[in-house]
TrEMBL record:
This is Lysosomal cobalamin transporter. Keywords: Coiled coil, Membrane, Transmembrane, Transmembrane helix. The chain crosses the membrane at residues 6-27, 39-64, 84-100, 107-123, 149-178, 269-292, 312-331, 397-416. The lineage of its organism: Eukaryota, Fungi, Fungi incertae sedis, Mucoromycota, Mucoromycotina. GO terms for cellular component: vacuolar membrane. Residues 184-247 form a coiled coil. GO terms for biological process: protein localization to vacuole. The keyword Transmembrane applies.
Length: 436
């Protein structure tokens, strides 16, 4: 295995550790200070880190297969023989399986997973249409029934992820643009309003205190009650002011400082991780704005520094399932060609039965599903997605139309937020500060 592959694994280790730190910061950002649970904190942090570790395997997977082909000749590199490629992709597969099992490992899910597995043993894929005769498709379908059952179970995990993707990620993504535009203006306005209220409250306090400063008379009942109310209001305003000042130094800005050195890494790797974080944060914003509800009843409120342990477990579960749907969206909708074959190319010119594009560089083409399989190696991620869809076409139907539902929800959310008046969060914020 070449040195570049070891460097790629080292980069992945660094990204994985960074995502672990990001998970810690994310949980701490939402966790209630007075109602924190150590075990819930540990479980949610580990779960998010594992989920991030699974999704960030995508750019590593793409790099590893891209590095097997010489872009100048359109042929496999000398070291990229069948055994080397097998062991390279096997490592990625093992990591995928380990993380999927870690995410779904519980007694309840174990029973449910066994039932799905048994059901998957008897599910047969539809036969391919007669006009499709691709070696790439045939390779995906040649596997044991046990493997097909496993893909069926994994496919079932994508369905709740798609639901989260439509309900929370799409509105959250539309909110991101408006939050970026309005956030600074809103913080400045809140800072000014709180300062003005604080000045008025303190002025009223001074007036009452000055009224009795020159005499030894005790405060009247009315003035005493008024002063007590003013003191309570001052404490609430000070908490508000402290919160606004903290918001100016948002934890995301500190995380960007941590991530700044990673600009030295390969651009496509950083871009892919950035896209993953963008979708993740959009989902978190959507959950925070909409809340976790059953029908019209709000079960948990997801707020900064005031989320209960049960709410943290729920948001972690939703985000974990959402990361499954990100895998499909990136692979099949956002960048299907790139996530299937990376930057691999192949020589489409043969001379004497030997592929040679030394003098025919215009015959070197990017890899696609029609390319020769002995040169173009699909990524483990795309193979996983394609096997799920081909072995159970119903999943393909659900996944495909869920992307359209996502787009419709995003557009609706965008226009609603464009014409909707800013939400008045002052009263709710006051309740939060009083509770604190």
């Amino acid at each position: 295995m070449p040195v570049a592959n070891y460097i790629a694994w080292a980069i992945y280790a660094g990204i994985f550790l960074t995502m672990g730190l990001f998970s810690v910061g994310f949980i701490k950002f939402y966790q209630s200070k007075r109602d924190a649970s150590l075990w819930v904190t540990i479980v949610t942090m580990i779960t998010l880190t594992i989920a991030f570790g699974m999704v960030t395997l995508i750019p590593l997977d793409i790099f590893l297969v891209s590095n097997t082909v010489d872009r100048h000749t359109g042929l496999k590199k000398r070291w990229a023989d069948g055994d080397t490629i097998y062991w390279t992709t096997l490592i990625v597969q093992v990591l995928y399986y380990a993380r999927v099992k870690a995410l779904k490992y519980s007694s309840l899910f174990g029973i449910f997973g066994i039932l799905l597995y048994l059901f998957g043993l008897f599910v047969k894929p539809n036969t391919l249409p007669p006009h499709i005769n691709l070696e790439w498709f045939n390779n995906l379908l040649i596997e044991s029934n046990g493997a097909k059952a496993f893909w069926f179970v994994v496919g079932c995990l994508f369905i709740p992820g798609m639901i989260v993707f439509i309900i929370y990620t799409a509105p959250g993504l539309s909110l991101v643009f408006f939050k970026l535009i309005k956030e600074k203006r809103r913080v400045d306005r809140e800072h000014e309003e709180v300062n003005q209220k604080l000045i008025k409250v303190r002025e009223q306090q001074r007036m009452i205190e000055h009224k009795y400063a020159a005499s030894s008379a005790a405060l009247s009942t009315h003035d005493h009650a008024t002063l007590e109310n003013l003191n309570d209001e001052e404490r609430i305003l000070l908490r508000q002011l402290s919160s606004v000042e903290e918001e100016e130094h948002h934890f995301l800005q500190r995380m960007l400082v941590v991530l700044r050195p990673f600009k030295l890494f390969p651009l496509d790797y950083v871009l892919m991780v950035g896209i993953i974080l963008q979708f993740f944060l959009a989902t978190a914003i959507g959950i925070s704005r909409i809340g976790i509800k059953f029908l019209w009843v709000t079960l948990y409120r997801i707020k900064k520094k005031s989320t209960s342990p049960q709410g943290l477990l729920m948001i972690t579960s939703l985000l974990t399932f959402a990361l499954f749907s990100f895998t499909y969206s990136i692979t099949s909708s956002l960048a299907p060609g790139y996530t299937h074959f990376g930057s691999q190319v192949y020589c489409n010119h043969t001379e004497g039965g030997i592929r040679d594009c030394s003098f025919e560089t215009d015959k070197i083409f990017p890899c696609d599903i029609w390319a020769p399989t002995e040169i173009c190696t699909p990524t483990v991620t795309s193979t996983l997605i394609d096997r799920i869809i081909l072995n159970t076409p119903t999943f393909g139907f659900i996944f495909y139309y869920s992307q359209w539902l996502f787009l419709v929800t995003f557009i609706l959310g965008f226009f609603i937020n464009m014409f909707k008046s800013p939400q008045n969060e002052e009263e709710q914020g006051l309740l939060d500060y009083v509770d604190a």
